[in-house]
Every structure is written in C-alpha cells, then in structure tokens.
Design brief:
Layout: H1 8-39, H2 43-68, H3 74-91, H4 98-126, H5 130-159, H6 167-183, H7 200-204, H8 206-213, H9 215-245, H10 250-277, H11 280-304, H12 307-329, H13 332-338, H14 345-373, H15 376-397, E1 405-409, H16 418-423, E2 429-433
Antiparallel strand pairs: 1-2
Domain Major facilitator superfamily (MFS) profile: 9-402
Pfam family, one: MFS_1
Keywords: Cell membrane, Membrane, Transmembrane, Transmembrane helix, Transport
C-alpha cells in the first residue's frame, strides 16, 4: 500500500491531507471549549447550530465550486482555500459573540466544501492505475481514522500546558503547512475535449445530473444513507450511552470512539487486497447490510446483556460497525472515477460531497431526537431500519451486471459526426466506456 508514496505529487498531497486533518481535529476540540466559554450550558445548542451551518455550507457550496473547478488551476484553488481556512482559525480565538462563531464557521466550511472535492478529484489524475488509486483511497481512509484517534489525544496534551485558544493556532499552522505542501506539486488543469454548454444553472447542476442518472451512483447514494445511519448513531449517542447508561468516565468515551475507529482502520488495511478479488458492489452492499444487522443486534443485545457485559458488548459492536462502515464507503472514489470523464470529475466529486451530507442531515436529528426523547434502543433500531432500507435500495438500483463498456447507438447524430467516426463502426453501434456527458445524456436501458 505504501508503495504509492513513491509518487512525489501524491506523497505531498497525502501529507498535506494528514496535516490539515490534524489541524481540523484541534479546531473541533477548541470550538467546543469556545462555545462553552461563550454560552455555558447552552454550548450544545451552539455546537448543534454550528454543525447545521457546516452541513448547509457543504451542501450549497460544493456543487457551485464543482461546476467551475475544471476551469480553474487546481493548485491555486487548493492553496487559496487553505489560506482562507488558516485565516479563519487565526481569528476564531478573538470572537466574543455567538453570531461571530456562526459566520466564521460558515466561511471556513465553505472553503472546505471547495477544497475537499477538488482534492479528491485530483487524485485519480495523479494515480491513473486503478490498483494504485484503490490503495490511495485506503490511505485516505486511514488518514481520517487516525485523525479521529490522534487529534483528541494531541489536544489533551496541549491543553495541559496552554489555553484552548492556542489550539486554533495549531489549526492555522496545519492549514498553512498544507498550502505549502500543495505549492510544491504540479497539478494540471483538466482539459475538456469539447467546450462546455449552458449557463450557470446547467454548469452548477452538471455533477448532480451525472450522479443521479448513473445507476451505480444511485446505488452509492443509498449506501451512503446506510453508512450515515450507523456513523451518526456512533457520533451522536456514544457519549450518552457511555456516561449516562453505563455510568463510565470521559476516558471510556474515548475508548468507545477508538473501538469504532480501530475497526475502520482494520478495514482500510485489508480492503485493497479484497477489492483485487471481489467487486465493489459485493463488498459495499454486503458491508451496508452488516451495518443494519449490527445496529439491530445492539438494539436487542444491549438491553438483555448483563451489567458485566454491557461495556464489552458496546465496544465489540462499535468495532464491528467501524469495519462495516469503512468497507461501505472507502471504494466510493473508484465508482466516481469510472463514472465521469476527467473534466467532469470535480463536479461529480462535489455532487457526492453534497449529497452525502444530505444523508447526514437526515440521520443526525433523527438519531439524536430518538436517543434523547425515547430510548437508545429505539435510536439503534431506527438506524438499523434506515441502514437496511439503504442496503436494499442499493441492491435494487445498482445492477448486478455493471460493465464499464456498454454497447449503444447514436441514431440522433449525423453520419459524419466526429464521435461516430472515432468510436463507432459501420453499423453505428458503439462499445466504449460509458459515462453521462453531452453526447450520452441518458443511461442505456438495462438488459
């Protein structure tokens, strides 16, 4: 897996990703403490609103940036977004009003909504070989999981010698270092084979239209809903289960999150070899179904487990969910890569970024409300149903036979059209990698 780090451009981008993630993790801890300093007991409401603003920025900004990313120099865009995020991090320690937090979070997350899909769409161009790209996806998953484990520990160590306000400085340093690393790379702008048609609306919705017209990506969206159901349960209700139901301490909350992250890391390590032998569809749908089964098992198992078995049952359940979650989402980039031309990838990655956060917006409030107003068993059960629904929907939407090369015809084109001359035989039947674009606006009928 680590052999792909011999590629200098990818190595620098991967290091930039790790450093930026560590900075983001420090900002998460610092923001929680800042909200408590300004709002006291209402800090939860402040953080909830900030999280909602983050999702709105992701959903609204990513498609707009994705529409024009193919026309912009990628390296300059990535550096500019890192500079914006660093600037916000530097300002955050000086705020003294709640509304200032909301405004700055919107600016920072809007920059992230521009940075992340553009970064993700760049990697397939740097690593054109699918085996290398698969390993890059697993390394990226490892980076996210490692950040979840390392950032809280790093924050705890720093807080023992400094005020939380200084954590924002660490965040700024992380983004600046990321920008410097990106500046050492050479990233080519995607070259379109044909000029883009249409106005702002057409360009802005291009990624969404490609996404929603591609059967395998329709299935991916359903799988994302299943993954969001399980992960939202872990993120929102772990602290409640550990502290209120089990009566354990803050360290045990960290252990629970570590069990989930450890499962995800294990899956990321073994996935590259599995994907060499087993199809993405089989692994991803099977993993999503495992999420539903795991959540349902915990909903039934936690109430009947004896007091001595509650804690190990939760840790084991979270570990299994971590494995299944990682397996259901890590191959996502492979599907996006094969579902668009190079010039459309930024828009498609932006569409995935936005649509995935719609799934989070559904799962977050439902699991939080059920856990608080009903029971944790009800929250687990409802997320099991939601994950099962997503798994079943993906099984139906994503065809079992899903070739990349699809025979099709173009009766609407003139015989001398360049596309017919290039890719078609005398019978006007084409067989080439099929993606939604200006010449292929609809998916061929399933056989």
């Amino acid at each position: 897996m680590l052999s792909i780090l011999r590629n200098r451009t990818y190595r620098h981008l991967f290091l930039a990703q790790i450093i930026a993630l560590l900075g983001t993790g420090l900002a998460t801890v610092a923001l929680a403490l800042l909200a408590y300093e300004l709002a006291g007991g209402a800090a939860g409401a402040v953080l909830g609103t900030a999280l909602a603003i983050k999702m709105i920025a992701y959903i609204g900004i990513a498609p707009i940036v994705g529409a024009f990313a193919d026309q912009l120099p990628r390296r300059s865009l990535l550096i500019a977004m890192d500079v914006v995020r660093a600037s916000v991090a530097i300002v955050l320690p000086f705020v003294d009003q709640i509304w200032q937090i909301y405004l700055l979070i919107f600016i920072m997350q809007s920059a992230s909504a521009a940075f992340t899909p553009t970064f993700q769409a760049t990697i397939p161009d740097i690593l054109p070989d699918e085996r290398d790209y698969t390993r890059a996806l697993s390394l990226s998953r490892l980076a996210y999981d490692t950040e979840n484990l390392v950032s809280p520990m790093l924050a705890a160590a720093l807080l023992s010698v400094m005020s939380f306000h200084w954590l924002f400085s660490g965040t700024a340093i992380g983004f600046i270092a990321s920008a410097l690393l990106v500046s050492t790379t050479v990233l080519e702008r995607s070259r379109s084979t044909e000029p883009r048609k249409g106005g702002i609306y057409t360009k802005t919705t291009r990624g969404m239209r490609i996404y929603l017209k591609t059967p395998r990506l329709q299935g991916l969206l359903a799988l994302t809903l299943a993954a969001a159901a399980a992960s939202a349960m872990v993120i929102v209700n772990t602290v409640v289960i550990v502290r209120d139901i089990l009566g354990l301490g803050q360290r045990d909350v960290a252990f629970a999150f570590a069990a989930y992250g450890g499962g995800s890391i294990l899956a990321a390590l073994i996935l590259p070899r599995l994907l060499d032998r087993i199809s993405d569809r089989t692994i991803m749908i099977g993993a999503a179904a495992s999420l539903s089964v795991g959540l349902a098992g915990l909903a039934v198992g936690l109430p009947i487990a004896g007091l001595a078995w509650l804690w190990p049952t939760l840790l084991g359940g979270w570990f299994i969910l971590g494995i299944a979650y990682s397996m259901s989402v890590t191959p996502t980039g492979r599907l996006l890569r094969r579902s668009a031309n190079a010039e459309d990838r930024p828009a498609l990655f932006a569409a995935q970024f936005a649509l995935s956060h719609v799934c989070w917006l559904i799962a977050y409030p439902v699991v939080g409300w059920l856990g608080a107003e009903v029971t944790q068993e009800a929250a687990l059960g409802s997320m099991a149903i939601l994950a099962g629904f997503g798994s079943g929907l993906a099984l139906w939407l994503w065809p079992r036979h899903d070739p990349q090369i699809i025979a099709h015809s173009h009766d609407e084109l003139a015989p001398d059209h360049p596309h017919l001359q290039k890719d078609h035989g005398e019978n006007r039947i084409a067989s080439h990698p099929y993606v939604i674009d200006e010449l292929h606006e609809h998916w061929p009928n399933r056989v």
